[in-house]
Amino acid sequence: MQNPPLIDKKISKKQIGSTGLEVDTLGFGCAPLGNLYYSISDQESTAVLDAAWQAGFRHFDTAPHYGQGLSERRTGDLLRSLQGKDYILSTKVGRLLKPAGYAKERHGFASPMPFDIQYDYSYDGIMRSFEDSLQRLGLDRIDILYMHDIGSDTHGSENDKHFPIAMKGGYKAMNELRSQGLVKAIGLGVNEYQVCEQAMDYGDWDCFLLAGRYSLLEQESLQTFLPKCQARNCSIIIGGPYNSGILATGVRGKGTANYNYAPASAEIIDRVAKIEMICDEYHVTLAAAALQFPLAHPSVASVIPGLGNISRIQNTIDLFHQAIPNDFWQSLKAADLLDKDAPAPTAVKASDVLHAN
């Protein structure tokens, strides 16, 4: 089998806020290693991570939530033998894992470890969560620490109780960890840009991991949130660039198209179908456009798609480097399928694309 290309010489880096910490613009999302939607064996997860490392991936993101600790354990198994190497690791705090015999709540993970989740955004809870992650990872270092899923999408009306605790005690703990040099950057890892914007009034955040809220399908965050990030030099890492599937699969297949972890509505399906028509016109792969689009914004430092099998590693590299003409982005804007104020990736001539393809 041919070895995958070494992408570390091709992928640019961007700095996280004012930290001096640089991340690859293409990262590795480790949620699938927690058996998201379907199970993979320990051997398969090891093979995927080994292949990703050999391909040049050096930016890894995991969380206690992913398989109730399983993703952290598997990610740590790879990185433990590579301590001292040039990689960036992020994980998340705010969930404590309690032994349960078996996981009563799976949260979309096919076969998580036997723990239930307890949310705790207090000072003590965040410190405990950080230490627990180090134990599961088997590492003495975490580079970026995110407070996970603090927002109404996760907690509903209960968020009125969680948010004040998180912004007072939780932020104090994270700020101390940063001040002591135990982490290099702190932020939120969420599915809502609104809670990030709200949190900016309570602390000095370096970055936000935003899943699905600045994508080829959604640019509402351009109105107020992203300008605030630019003004405060706060970086964005984009998770879920395919909006949980529909921007990777499109809507022409036989299966159900998922959008934001649920079957897509007729309105979303129609919008994606129109985008696909313009993709056809310019010989552009829908997934390539979805992967590349967010990075054109100056505040976006990295995109981290979830990668759960070896074939997706090479495919993702190819999508990331696929040539896309400037006229493609302009056609999306003209068709009102992309916000007219959204920055477009660096211009490429259509003739160059046809030659490359």
Automatic annotation (TrEMBL):
SUPFAM superfamilies linked: NAD(P)-linked oxidoreductase (SSF51430)
Residue stretches making up the NADP-dependent oxidoreductase domain: 26-335
Any single Pfam family the record assigns to this protein: Aldo_ket_red
Molecular-function GO terms, alphabetical: oxidoreductase activity
Residue ranges the record marks as coiled coil: none
UniProt cross-references to InterPro entries, sorted A to Z: AKR (IPR020471), NAD(P)_OxRdtase_dom_sf (IPR036812), NADP_OxRdtase_dom (IPR023210)
GO CC, one annotated term: cytosol
Protein name: Aldo/keto reductase
Lineage: Bacteria, Pseudomonadati, Pseudomonadota, Gammaproteobacteria, Alteromonadales
